[in-house]
Design brief:
InterPro entries: F-box-like_dom_sf (IPR036047), F-box_dom (IPR001810)
Strand order of the largest sheet: 11-9-10-15
Organism: Schizophyllum amplum
Protein name: F-box domain-containing protein
Pfam families: F-box-like
Structural class: alpha+beta
Length: 652
C-alpha cells in the first residue's frame, strides 16, 4: 500500500497520531520505514473486510503502541489480517512500547534472549501457547518461562514429556544423572502428573555434559548449571508476580466498572417501579444478559437503549409476582372464611342442613359483603356478625334452589315431571359421579343426606383450574357445573323391593316411615346356616344394589332378603349395640405394633341424645362416662349427622 492509496482522512489521522506519538515520546523505531514496509506486506497478504481492517497500516502501527499488552493480544485474536501485523517481527518495537507503559507501575522483566517481544508479552499476560498461538488446553510452566498446549508437547518439537522414573537408553545421557533436577529447568503438570522440559534446553545441556563428563571440569559445569537454573527460577518468579499483580489490578478496575454499570441499571429499574421484582433473579440476570454484563459505564444514551428491553424483561416478571401475591391473598382470604364457617357450623345441631362454604361465597348476601370488604383488608369477626345473622335465610333459599335442582335430575331420570314431595320418599336415591371414588362409597345416597355429603362438593381439580375459589380451597360448590350429582336408578329399584318387603307402599313411604317401621332384614344370599347376616333397611339398599368390584357388598352376587322375625329383633339390636363403634373414634391399640390406628382419623361431630350437648367422636366416650355414667356408647345414645347413617351389617 503506497501513500497515494491512503485517503485524506486517513493521512490527517495518521499525522495527528504521529504528532501525539512525538509528544508522548514513543520509541523512535516505531516510524522505521523498514518496519512499516514489512507490516504492510504481511497486512496485504491477509487483508480481510471490516471497519478496522480498512484503516491504513501506518495508522494501526502508530495507534497500537498506546494499547495495553493484553489489549494487543486480544487484537491479534480478532482476524488473520490483524494477527499478521501484530505478531510480525517488525512489530516488536510496538510491543516494546506497549510493555514500557507498565514500567511506571511494576518492575517489568525484560524479554529473555531468543524470545520475541510478542512471545514475552503473551507469556506475561496472555493465555495462548507461545509456540502455536492457540488457547486450547495450555500448561503454564513458569520455571521454563513458557506456556504451551498439550498438542505441542506431544509432538516433541519444542517441548518434551519426561518420565524421570523410567529413563531409557535412547534418551539423552544427562537425564540419568541423579541430580538432574538441579541442572535442568523443568515444568510439572499437576493435572496429568507429567514433567516437561524445553527441547532446546535439553539438547544444549546434554551436549555440554557429553563434552565434560569424563573430565575434571564436570563439577565446574554443574555449578554453572545450578546457577543458571537458579537465575531462571528467579526470573520465572519475577514474571509470575508481575502477571498476578497486573491481572489483579485489571480485574479490580473491571469490577469497579462492572458494578458501577450494574448500580446505574439497578437505580433505573427501581425508579421505573421494578424494585420488588429486581432482587429475586437480578444476580443471575446481570451475568447472563449481554446488555447488562458489560464493563463500561452508562450514559443517557446507554440507558435509553436499554430502557425498552429492560421493561420487556421485567414486565412479565412483575405480572407473575403480582399474580402470586394475588393468589396468596386469595388463599388467606378464602382459608380464613372457611375456618370461620366451620366454626359456625360446629355450633349447629348435627341433623341440620347447611350449604358448603363455596356456596356461601357464591350467595348474594356474601357477594354484597365482599364488595364492601376489599380482599386485601381481610375478614373481621365484627364484619361476619352481620353476615352470619343472615344465614338462616341463606340456608332456606339455598335448600330451595338445590331441591329444585334435584327435582330436575329426577325428572330427567323418570322421563316425567317430578315433585318436591318425591324427594322425601324412601325410594329416592342419588349418586356422585365425578368424585373420583369407587361407586360403593358415593352411591345410594338418600335425601337429605345428598345435600350434605362431602362427595358432592369435594374437589378433584387440575393445577391449571381457572376458578380461583376452587383452586384456593380445593373444594367446589354443591353439584359443581351440574356434573356431580345424578339419580341412582339401581338403588331406586332395589329400594322399592325393600320397602314393599317391609310392608309399606313404595310410592308413598318416606324415609321417616321406614325408620319408624324399624324392620330388620336378613340377606339369605350371603348368610350362613344358623348365622344370618342382618341389617336395617338403608344398608339393605346399599347391600343389594348391583355393582362391580368393591361396590358389590353382597359377595354371593345374588342378594335376597327376608324380614327378620320379631322375636329375633331384640337380639339383633343387642348385637348392634355391642358391635357398633362411634364413627371417627380411635379404635384403641392395634395388635400390629407397626400400625397406628389413630392416623388419618377424622373427628365426627354429633349430639348427645340425653343432654343435647354437641360432642365429637374423640370425647363422646368421656362425656358419656362423666355426665351419664354410660360405659359403652350405643347408637341410641347419640344423634349422628346426616352424612353418618348406620351402615352396619351384623352376623347373628
Amino acid at each position: 500500500m503506497s501513500s497515494s492509496d491512503v485517503d485524506p482522512m486517513g493521512r490527517r489521522a495518521s499525522a495527528r497520531l504521529k504528532r501525539r506519538a512525538s509528544t508522548d515520546s514513543p520509541p523512535e523505531s516505531l516510524s522505521s520505514t523498514r518496519s512499516v514496509k514489512r507490516c504492510k506486506a504481511a497486512y496485504k497478504n491477509a487483508r480481510e473486510e471490516g471497519p478496522l481492517e480498512d484503516l491504513p497500516v501506518e495508522l494501526l502501527y502508530e495507534t497500537f503502541a498506546y494499547l495495553h499488552p493484553i489489549d494487543l493480544l486480544n487484537v491479534a485474536q480478532t482476524s488473520r489480517a490483524l494477527k499478521s501485523v501484530v505478531m510480525d517481527q517488525a512489530f516488536s518495537s510496538v510491543w516494546k512500547a506497549s510493555l514500557a507503559t507498565l514500567h511506571g507501575r511494576w518492575n517489568m522483566p525484560p524479554a529473555p534472549e531468543g524470545r520475541s517481544q510478542a512471545e514475552h508479552a503473551n507469556l506475561l499476560f496472555g493465555d495462548t501457547c507461545i509456540f502455536c498461538w492457540t488457547a486450547r488446553s495450555t500448561v503454564t510452566a513458569w520455571s521454563l518461562n513458557a506456556r504451551f498446549c498439550r498438542e505441542c508437547a506431544s509432538t516433541g518439537k519444542d517441548v518434551l514429556k519426561i518420565d524421570f522414573e523410567n529413563i531409557t537408553r535412547k534418551q539423552p545421557l544427562i537425564l540419568r544423572l541423579p541430580d538432574i533436577g538441579d541442572l535442568l529447568n523443568y515444568g510439572y503438570d499437576e493435572c496429568e502428573d507429567i514433567f516437561y522440559v524445553l527441547t532446546k534446553d535439553l539438547e544444549v545441556r546434554n551436549t555440554e555434559y557429553l563434552a565434560v563428563r569424563r573430565t575434571a571440569a564436570v563439577e565446574t559445569w554443574k555449578t554453572k548449571c545450578r546457577a543458571l537454573v537458579g537465575d531462571r527460577r528467579n526470573f520465572a518468579s519475577w514474571c509470575a508476580d508481575v502477571r498476578t499483580l497486573e491481572l489483579s489490578a485489571r480485574e479490580r478496575k473491571r469490577s469497579r466498572l462492572h458494578y458501577g454499570r450494574q448500580s446505574e441499571i439497578e437505580d433505573f429499574l427501581i425508579d421505573a417501579g421494578f424494585k420488588d421484582d429486581l432482587y429475586p433473579f437480578w444476580h443471575d440476570l446481570q451475568y447472563e444478559h449481554p446488555l447488562l454484563d458489560r464493563v463500561e459505564l452508562l450514559n443517557e444514551q446507554g440507558i435509553s437503549d436499554l430502557q425498552d428491553e429492560l421493561v420487556e424483561i421485567f414486565e412479565p416478571r412483575q405480572a407473575q409476582r403480582l399474580e402470586h401475591e394475588h393468589q396468596r391473598f386469595l388463599l388467606r382470604y378464602y382459608a380464613d372464611m372457611d375456618a370461620r364457617w366451620k366454626s359456625y357450623v360446629n355450633q349447629l345441631p348435627p341433623q341440620d342442613v347447611h350449604p358448603p362454604v363455596c356456596d356461601v361465597f357464591l350467595s348474594l348476601p356474601y357477594q354484597q359483603f365482599a364488595v364492601d370488604t376489599p380482599i386485601h383488608t381481610g375478614i373481621w369477626s365484627m364484619h361476619l356478625k352481620l353476615l352470619f345473622s343472615r344465614v338462616p335465610a341463606l340456608v332456606t333459599r339455598w335448600r330451595a334452589e338445590k331441591d329444585a335442582e334435584l327435582v330436575d335430575i329426577m325428572s330427567k331420570a323418570f322421563g316425567r315431571r317430578s315433585t318436591v314431595q318425591e324427594l322425601q320418599l324412601a325410594t329416592t336415591f342419588f349418586q356422585c359421579n365425578a368424585s373420583g371414588k369407587s361407586l360403593a362409597e358415593v352411591s345410594s345416597v338418600g335425601y337429605p343426606r345428598i345435600l350434605v355429603t362431602p362427595h358432592a362438593s369435594r374437589a378433584y381439580i387440575r393445577e391449571d383450574e381457572p376458578d380461583e375459589m376452587v383452586r384456593s380451597l380445593q373444594k367446589t360448590p354443591w353439584n359443581w357445573k351440574g356434573e356431580r350429582v345424578a339419580f341412582d336408578e339401581a338403588a331406586h329399584s332395589v329400594a322399592r323391593d325393600v320397602v314393599a318387603l317391609c310392608g309399606l307402599e313404595p310410592d308413598k313411604a318416606t324415609a321417616s316411615d321406614m325408620e319408624v317401621r324399624g324392620a330388620w332384614l336378613a340377606c339369605t344370599g350371603c348368610s350362613k346356616r344358623g348365622h344370618p347376616r342382618v341389617m336395617q333397611w338403608y344398608q339393605a339398599v346399599r347391600h343389594a344394589r348391583p355393582g362391580a368390584g368393591p361396590s358389590l357388598l353382597c359377595k354371593s352376587g345374588k342378594p335376597s332378603f327376608s324380614v327378620l322375625d320379631e322375636a329375633k329383633v331384640p337380639r339383633a339390636v343387642a348385637l348392634r349395640d355391642r358391635k357398633w363403634r362411634v364413627p371417627g373414634a380411635p379404635r384403641g391399640k392395634s395388635k400390629n405394633k407397626r400400625r397406628d390406628d389413630t392416623v388419618n382419623i377424622i373427628s365426627v361431630r354429633m349430639m348427645c341424645a340425653h343432654c343435647k350437648d354437641i360432642v365429637t367422636s374423640f370425647d363422646v366416650a368421656t362425656h358419656m362416662q362423666h355426665e351419664h355414667e354410660i360405659l359403652h356408647v350405643r347408637l341410641t345414645d347419640v344423634v349422628l349427622p346426616l352424612d353418618e347413617a348406620d351402615t352396619g351389617e351384623y352376623v347373628m
